[in-house]
Specification:
By secondary structure, the protein is of the alpha/beta class. It has helices at about 30-45, 65-75, 105-120, 140-150, 165-175, 195-200, 240-245, 250-260, 265-275, 290-300, 305-320; strands at about 5, 10-15, 15-20, 50, 80-85, 90, 100-105, 130, 160, 180-185, 205-210, 280-285. The longest helix has 14 residues, at about 105-120. Keywords: Oxidoreductase. Pfam families: Aldo_ket_red.
Length: about 325
């Protein structure tokens, strides 16, 4: 697979693998043996960038995902880039499917969290470590200072922030250079295009999570699609309602048309579109299926012309589009 560079020097596969869905938010955790095999196949197929977090798991096993990756990827550790995150926990008192998040960006929390992640991931360092959400009660400079200490100690090599705006990024970057921001980005969620100029200026990479709008842009869902109640976030996401399926029909029809013209799939067009925007954008779609793993990887070879990107942008500005899931609530 082609590669891209995040920040000044973190080289990763052009498409990364978001591993959350193997353990969390897409129904009960998947079979560990199957996911271990899938992760090994991902390495064989050229994926070098694997994304997890300390809280991707279940009530029974809160750190399931890091433990899965630690065991599965141990034989390939010197060939891959491992990214994890700290700084939030779930509000377990909530009965919602998608529980609100409680941020905790205190330096002592960050330092304790990295030790847990290193142990579970069976490694002596993380290649990229993110503050998972900004804690409004802790100045971001303090969190960035803790990350700088972790770099100096050799526990991490690069610092990232998830769901950050320009002001936050500038403040954090002044204390410890930020290698990547990981924000939600897809054809249906484009809010963070506003920070592209500052990322260019500061030489910060953009890691796009939910690049297919939680799978919706694969064009594989319809009104009969069923999601496990209680464990699958898609069961409460606005883009998967019957009304939304109708409202998004024109957009998906256009996407399929472009896919046919380019001998690609709608998912590949969606990924190729964002990669054509900037050379430092790296999408990290997730999957539990080998076929999707390959399909997503091959998106790196789909090249859109400037005119085709403009066509897609114009379409996104003009056709009807439903609401789309915009992220878990942050508990005040």
């Amino acid at each position: 697979m082609k590669t891209r560079v995040l920040g000044k020097d973190l080289e990763v596969s052009a498409i990364g693998l978001g591993c959350m869905g193997m353990s969390h938010a897409y129904g009960p955790a998947a079979d560990k043996k199957e996911m271990t095999e899938l992760l090994c196949k991902a390495v064989e197929k050229g994926y070098t960038f694997f994304d997890t977090a300390e809280l991707y798991g279940t009530c029974e096993n809160p750190h399931d995902n890091e433990e899965l990756l630690g065991e599965a990827l141990k034989p390939y550790r010197n060939r891959i880039v491992l990214a994890s995150k700290c700084g939030i926990r779930f509000d377990e008192s909530s009965s919602e499917v998608n529980k609100p998040l409680i941020p905790d960006g205190r330096p002592e929390t960050i330092k304790a969290s990295v030790d847990g992640s290193l142990r579970r991931l069976q490694t002596d360092h993380l290649d990229l470590y993110y503050i998972h959400r900004i804690d409004p009660k802790v100045p971001v400079e303090e969190a960035a200072g803790a990350m700088k200490e972790l770099i100096d100690a050799g526990k991490i090599t690069h610092f990232g922030i998830s769901e950050a705006d320009e002001h936050t990024l500038r403040r954090a970057h002044a204390v410890c250079p930020v290698t990547a921001v990981q924000n939600r980005y897809s054809m249906m969620y484009r809010d963070y295009e506003a920070i592209f100029p500052v990322l260019e200026e500061l030489q910060i990479g953009f890691v796009a999570f939910s690049p297919l709008a939680n799978g919706f842009l694969s064009a594989q869902y319809n009104k009969e699609s069923k999601f496990e109640k209680g464990t699958d976030y898609r069961s409460v996401m606005p883009q998967f309602t019957p009304e939304a399926i109708d409202k998004n029909e024109e957009m998906l029809r256009y996407l399929k048309g472009m896919a046919d013209r380019k001998n690609a799939t709608p998912a590949q067009i969606s990924l190729a579109w964002m990669m054509a925007k900037k050379p430092w954008i790296v999408p990290i779609p997730g999957t539990r299926k080998y076929g999707r793993l390959i399909e997503n990887a091959q998106a790196a070879d789909v090249e859109l012309t400037e005119q085709e990107v403009k066509e897609l942008d114009n379409m996104l500005e003009s056709v009807p589009m439903s609401e789309v899931f915009g992220g878990s609530k942050i508990k005040k």
